[in-house]
Amino acid sequence: MAKFTKKKDGDLPAVSTASLPDIVFMLLFFFMTVTTMKDSSLMVENTLPNASEVKKLEKKDRVLYIYVGKPTRDYQKVFGTEPKIQLNDKFANVSDVGDFILEERAKKPQELQNVLTTALKVDKDANMGLISDIKQELRKVNALKVNYTTYEGDAFRNIQ
Amino acid sequence: MSRRGGPPEVNAGSMADIAFLLLIFFLVTTTIETDAGLDRMLPPMEPPDENVVIKQKNIFTVNINKSGQLLVEEELTNLKDLRKKAVAFLDNGGDGTCNYCKGRRDESSSDNPTKAIISLKNDRETKYGTYITVQNELVGAYNELRNREAQRLFGRDFTDMEAEYLNPETPSSIRDDLKDKVQRIQDLFPQKLSEAETSTSN
């Protein structure tokens, strides 16, 4: 009988927090899995223009990215301040764009090769001349679907 | 301080703190970004076989010069008026074959939305931001008209239907239904936006 009289104080037992870590870990794993670390660091200034009539770019695996803009401050000494093209992790010339597209296209699975979109992430201060040259290169390799990536917003803010 | 109840329990209270720390780190670094932008199709490299003759009145010319000024149909135009002008041009229905057009039916403007072509030309020194604004306004003009027709026929906006159609999470039964509707609206106002090679002159 002595065993059952052990409860001396009538205090409320503390709420067990043992399951709290589990809950938090669950959240943690969620965010760990959805986090995508950027695979290429930007070497160009990339303030995208605004547009209101945008369409979402679904399915990341079907998109190739081309960045255009002024080199960032660290690279300005070497590459100057004229807008440059960045493909993956290095600066490139207009003539490299076609090869890049073909190379990236070959890496994709067969069934996706015909539905690829090229996303042009261009700084709003870049000149159209360079963009036209890129478009010309894209036409040469038959990469006709392009998406001018923009922020969602009022388009008239671009011209101020 | 007796150890009568077996080994003492490890205090797991700080585990939550550690996990929270990690959680907050990932919360802050996560950017769930979905890129959005203006979709465009570039013209194929090989020119069309036969030379198609297009009447001048069916072409709506937009020129952008290097300082960002607009010349629309040989007239200096403010960017804010571009959408209105484009809508008026597309919706004109000059030859009376377009029964859903609500335009002025001006003889000297476009015959039919299916024949109307917008031609965009820009200088090599045009700023990209200006170019996007112009593109945005032209796409906006098409969307405005398509929304109007979609509202009339199906009671909802075209942009809304198209977004649902393109969304991969939409069930395929709804997608098949939407496909026909989207196609029908697109046929009423086909997007014919031609971009000439950029001019190198001033």
Automatic annotation (TrEMBL), chain A:
Keyword Chaperone part of the UniProt annotation: no
Q: How does it sit in the membrane?
A: Single-pass membrane protein; Single-pass type II membrane protein
The Gene Ontology biological process terms listed for this entry are: protein transport
Q: Where in the cell is it found?
A: Cell membrane
Q: What is its main location?
A: membrane
Q: Which UniProt keywords apply?
A: Cell membrane, Membrane, Protein transport, Transmembrane, Transmembrane helix, Transport
InterPro entries recorded: ExbD
Q: Would you say which domain of life the source belongs to?
A: Bacteria
Xref: Pfam families: ExbD (PF02472)
Where would you find the membrane-spanning parts of this chain? 12-32
Q: Name one GO cellular component term.
A: plasma membrane
- GO MF annotations for this entry? transmembrane transporter activity
Per the similarity annotation, which family is this?
A: Belongs to the ExbD/TolR family.
Query: What is the recorded name of this protein?
Result: Biopolymer transporter ExbD
What is the species listed in this Swiss-Prot or TrEMBL entry? Muriicola jejuensis
